[in-house]
Amino acid sequence: MFKQIATKNTSKKSTDASSPVNDLQRLGFSEYEACTYLSLLQGSPATAYEVSKHSGLPRANIYGALESLAKKRAVQPVSENPTRYVPVEPSALLGRIASDVGDLCERLQQTLETLEPKESPDVVWSIDGEEQIAAKVDELIDHALQHVWIKASTDVLRRHAPRLKKAAARGVKLIFVVFGEDTKFLRFGKGTKVYLHEGNGQRVGGADNLFTIAIDYRLALTANLGETLTGAYTTNPAIVRMAETLIRHDVYMAEMMAYLGKEIEERFGKGLIELRRSLFSPEQMSELTANLEKAKKAVNES
Predict the structure, then answer these.
(1) Residue 252: which of 260, 262, 241, 240 has the closest Cα?
(2) Angstrom distance (rounded) from CA 222 to CA 243
(3) What CATH number does residue 60 fall under?
(4) How far apart are CA 242 and CA 218, in angstroms?
(5) What is the SS3 string spanning 161-227?
(6) Are strands 173-179 and 192-196 parallel, antiparallel or unpaired?
(7) In contact, 212 and 282? CB cutoff 8 Å
(8) In terms of domains, do 129 and 213 share one?
(9) Residue 293, pLDDT score
(10) Alpha-carbon distance 138 to 119, whole Å?
(11) Does residue 32 share a domain with residue 104?
């Protein structure tokens, strides 16, 4: 027998985001299913006709809602001819839903964590922040198979020394073009070559704030480690080739300076200042001049 224990109008659409109808919909119930379940909570056992009369919902929709709720194990029939339904207790229903959703989320999390984004060669991926950039550099070093070429300051490279050492142990060949003089920590065996930038490792025009790495002829990353910590990496062949070419020419320059440094500096000045004067920005020239003055002062004091 249908026993009414609450007011009608459960079918009226609530504007309250926390209403039972809205909350049940967030758990996967349709609006008719939610209203039907709530109507049965308010009075049961009940037939589809009685639920319709009590809730104000069209009877045709109630039949479908009851069948769907039965499949969801939210209601169950207790008699036939006519079929009457009772609701599953809310604690049992919601406990089962919570368990099912929890299991689903755990399984989905495990699946999603195994997926790796496919990095299109046409895309340049941006990264910002010191920790994010450092983590990406470590990741790239860990996955290197043939070689790692890096142009950077020794201050920055110290952080990555443990990863680079492991790469060298795997047989990965390492080439460094560095700003700075202390390079002992980069000596990882015969597969490693270290070049001081332009033969002396002096800082010029802010270039020491740039970190450039090229790996296996297939991937490159560059980052500005100055006041603005931002970078980008890509597998785009043209950009990878550009990064490789930059490092190659720095290697060539370091080799030439090792043999012809005195003659080159006599012609173009310390820090190649005469060459750079027409190409550097005023800010870069100012920084270069300051760095050259510091280097000169250090030599005089030594």
Answers:
(1) 260
(2) 8
(3) 1.10.10.10
(4) 11
(5) HHHHHHHHHCCCEEEEEEECCCCHHHCCCCCEEEEEHHHCCCCCCCHHHEEEEEECCCEEEEEEECC
(6) parallel
(7) no
(8) yes
(9) 82
(10) 17
(11) yes
Say yes or no: 242 and 197 in one domain: yes
* pTM: predicted TM-score of the whole model, two decimal places: 0.59
* pLDDT tens digits, one per residue of 127-144: 999 899 999 999 999 999
Give yes or no: residues 66 and 91 share one domain: yes
Overall domain count for the chain: 2
Is 14's pLDDT higher than 80?
A: no
Calculate helix-pair angle for 59-71, 31-42, nearest 10 degrees. 90
Residues 137 and 229 occupy one common structural domain: yes
The residue assigned the tokens 């969801």 is 72
Query: Which residues share a beta bridge with 219?
Result: 215
Per-residue pLDDT, 241: 95
DSSP string, 97-163: HHHHHHHHHHHHHHHHHT------TT-EEEEESHHHHHHHHHHHHHT-SSEEEEEEEHHHHHHHHHH
Q: For residue 236, what are the domain limits?
A: 124-264
